[in-house]
């Protein structure tokens, strides 16, 4: 394979000479301003300072105007050279140092934004997203890098199942780039309903009363993540399960809870078997946390750990009820 020839920047020589003289003038003006700052404060030094600052502003505007007409072709030339000379792994390292690493909230409103609006937030107007500066190949690779490094937060518990299904194939950048092929970091808030259980209890120090009997809890909880083990990259999931006091009130019957735990564990085993990582928290179980990276617990232990944690909550509720009735 022929070695790439060295890039030619001859077309930028006129710009270099123009900017070089302007930069020299700018440096001299800054030096003059520093010297004036060290002199005694008089009306003469104040007038000189104001005059120098006005000159400096004009010079900086000339530098900006001189660079503007050359910036796009020069940026493209540099990016093309990077693409020709460096392997993709190194280019991805460069991209990850260039763009922001963000948390993007993904809900129904994310799906409604126009395709002409870049989905990034902090650096949406940066030139490095623009193909006129970066070239088509570098622009696409930058977008792929953004998907890999961004944390996508699926916060809308009521709509997460439909939102994630659409998000995975939504080409928000207009570059035929599907998120499902590149995302590596996601967070999910999961719930089987929005009812705050036991809120009608008139005795805050007593047992929290059962207000309903929840059904099909497990399937409703895991619906948003049921096919995500098929994602091609090794994705890191952070998952929080919300049951809003249903364990403390007994609104999830014991048989339903056992079924729910079984469904959750099956989904987690699918994720782990596909090479994904996860951390699962369940606030109703207190400080309980389940991690795919835990060295002390195998997947076969997950069911027992969840059931033991849930049983502890149920026993605590029963003990409160016994104490309250005395």
Q: What keywords describe this structure?
A:
disordered N terminus; 6 strands; 9% strand; 11 helices; 326 residues; 51% helix; disordered C terminus
Give the SSE layout.
Elements: H1 13-37, H2 43-85, H3 88-98, E1 103-105, H4 108-112, H5 131-134, H6 136-149, E2 151-154, H7 160-167, E3 185-191, H8 217-222, E4 236-242, H9 246-249, H10 254-273, E5 277-281, E6 289-291, H11 299-325
Parallel strand pairs: 1-2, 2-3, 3-4, 4-5
Antiparallel strand pairs: 5-6
Helix pairs in contact: 1-2, 3-6, 10-11
Write up this protein.
By secondary structure, the chain is of the alpha/beta class. It folds into two domains: 14-85; 92-325, no CATH class. Helix content is 51%, strand content 9%. It has helices spanning 13-37, 43-85, 88-98, 108-112, 131-134, 136-149, 160-167, 217-222, 246-249, 254-273, 299-325; strands at 103-105, 151-154, 185-191, 236-242, 277-281, 289-291. The protein has a six-stranded mixed sheet with strand order 1-2-3-4-5-6. Strand 5 and strand 6 (289-291) form a beta hairpin. Helix 3 packs across helix 6 (136-149) and helix 10 packs antiparallel against helix 11.
Helicity level: 40-55%
Question: What value does the Rg take, in angstroms?
Answer: 30 Å
Largest sheet geometry: 6 strands, mixed
Global structural class: alpha/beta
Distance between the termini: 87 Å
Rounded mean pLDDT is: 85
Q: So what's the overall shape?
A: elongated
Low-pLDDT segments, ≥5 res? 1-10, 321-326
Order of helices and strands: HHHEHHHEHEHEHHEEH
